[in-house]
Amino acid sequence: MEEGFHFITLYLEEFTYTGIFLVLVLAGFGLPFPEEIVLVLSGYLAFLNYTKFHLTLFVTLSGVLIGDIALFLFGKKWGKVILKHHRLEWLFTRRRLARARRFFFKYGRRTIFIARFLSGIRAPVYLTAGTIGMKSKNFVVMDALAAVISVPFFVFIGYFFGEDIDRVIRIVRRTEYFILILLLILGILLYLKVRSAKGQGKEDNNGGDVRG
What we know:
Elements: H1 3-28, H2 35-47, H3 53-84, H4 94-107, H5 110-115, H6 122-131, H7 136-160, H8 165-174, H9 178-211
Helix pairs in contact: 1-2, 1-3, 2-3, 2-7, 2-8, 3-6, 3-7, 4-6
């Protein structure tokens, strides 16, 4: 395991649930440590029996949502000042902010759902959402829907593949778009299934009319 990841693992082992929660809240503000890796390591701690699996799920989900909501509210109050501050350009770069605005223009509030699976623009998107005055209810709903999918996914990976944690971390670092692609595929399959069911229903109704 890389030195940085080994350090954070030792920290999480020492402070367990409190450590997991705090790191995830800080990661929500865009600090340079991937949230997905923290989630995988949290599952790994459950694999090692340092923590209870179900409680780990609750703590990780809470930390992620609170971090996201805090950043969003921060953006509502101080976002315009932050985005213009030269000392924070390393965190909220012009490139990331430009990508965030393009996502909002193209997808609207669905951007919040999509951004949860894209670590590179997640923090800028959430900060921008607050800055442009997005309704808090819409933000929380879209973020929570995405979080209940993404958070358990990464925790499960760390738990079930704990014996090969180094390889898991390497794969997760390279596959930022994997879950988003998977969700799109599942969405298409669900749409086709619903459409097929509706078509079958129409055929049955037409058949009933003929027999009548």
